[in-house]
Write a structure and sequence with these properties.
Layout lengths: L10 E4 L4 H15 L9 H6 L1 E4 L2 H5 L4 E4 L5 H14 L5 E4 L6 H4 L9 E6 L8 E6 L5 H13 L3 E4 L9 H17 L5 H16 L4 H7 L5 H17 L10 H13 L4 H24 L1
Parallel strand pairs: 1-2, 3-4, 4-5, 6-7
Antiparallel strand pairs: 5-6
Helix pairs in contact: 9-10
């Protein structure tokens, strides 16, 4: 929503209801109140640039970049892009917000695949700035450069993958953390509450500002090469002790789910409250990162 105000172009939303615009209005007002609104326009001015359509043709008229955000179902996305291609010129960039479907699959039914990519935001994108840009194998470098420039202009933090891979970068790293966290709880090494503290009060404290590569580089007197001389064998030993991919659906999983739900019940009231807390904390962290 607000991100696109920086480049002075309107945002068009294909929607059959007013729910999307109402949600955006609330978000814009909250961002403005927190002094986190991007661009030079007020929340009201930005909201005035939003428009909602029930048909593709008027929504796509004059577009130079199309971002698809339908639910994560391959056949639906493929069909949407087939329709989109009927109404836009060959120079219009086509982008999907999918979190796990590779571009070669999403755009397999598109004729002009050289202008196609995935632009995967991180939830909630108005506080978490990262966007993964994943090229279709046929994507032109100029298309990727244009997408990177656009995302930078609207205040996001784009990262460019050099080729497509299942799960992209963020979800592959996240999957590794999830798997080992799940294993440690399942094997009786640590509780659900405490493994979350390992991240929130441990690794997450520094990873909020520097990544794993820089963390290693700074954690040895002479940098990354020195770090590997000191700790590389230990890391290899630990990695070799990892077990197979955990069973996230079988009987052992029920105990982990039960423990999590005892901490935070899975009804909408409790989940909504924790999501609001998450967004508030991310807002404060985002502001801190912006100030520094």
């Amino acid at each position: 929503s607000s991100e696109f105000r920086n480049i002075g172009r309107s945002v068009r939303i294909l929607s059959g209801t007013h729910e999307v615009c109402n949600s955006l209005e609330k978000q814009l007002e909250e961002l403005e109140e927190a002094h986190m609104l991007r661009g030079q326009l007020t929340a009201a001015q930005q909201l005035a640039l939003l428009s909602s359509y029930e048909d593709l043709a008027p929504a796509l008229e004059g577009a130079f970049f199309v971002q698809e955000c339908v639910f994560e179902q391959l056949e639906v996305k493929q069909g949407v892009f087939q329709e989109i291609e009927r109404f836009v010129g060959k120079e219009v960039i086509l982008s999907s917000s999918t979190s796990c479907l590779v571009p070669s699959s999403v755009f397999s039914k598109v004729q002009e695949r050289s202008r196609c990519l995935v632009s995967h935001p991180v939830n909630p994108p108005y506080y978490v700035r990262l966007v993964e840009l994943v090229p279709h194998p046929e994507a032109k470098p100029a298309v990727m450069d244009a997408a990177h420039s656009l995302m930078t202009k609207v205040g996001q933090a784009p990262v460019l993958l050099k080729k497509e891979i299942d799960g992209f970068a963020l979800n592959r790293v996240q999957a590794a953390i999830i798997a080992e966290s799940w294993r440690l709880v399942q094997d009786g090494v640590i509780s659900v509450k405490d493994i979350d503290l390992v991240m929130s009060e441990g690794l997450g404290m520094r990873y909020a500002f520097i990544g794993p590569m820089e963390t290693m580089h700074l954690n040895a007197p002479e940098g990354l090469e020195d770090y590997m001389r000191r700790y590389g064998e230990g890391i290899t030993r630990v990695l070799n002790s990892f077990g197979p991919v955990p069973d996230f659906f079988g009987e052992p999983a029920k105990a982990i789910i039960k423990e999590m739900c005892e901490l935070i019940p899975s009804d909408q009231q409790h989940l909504s409250g924790r999501k609001e807390r998450r967004d508030m904390l991310l807002m404060h962290l985002s502001k801190l990162k912006t100030d520094h």
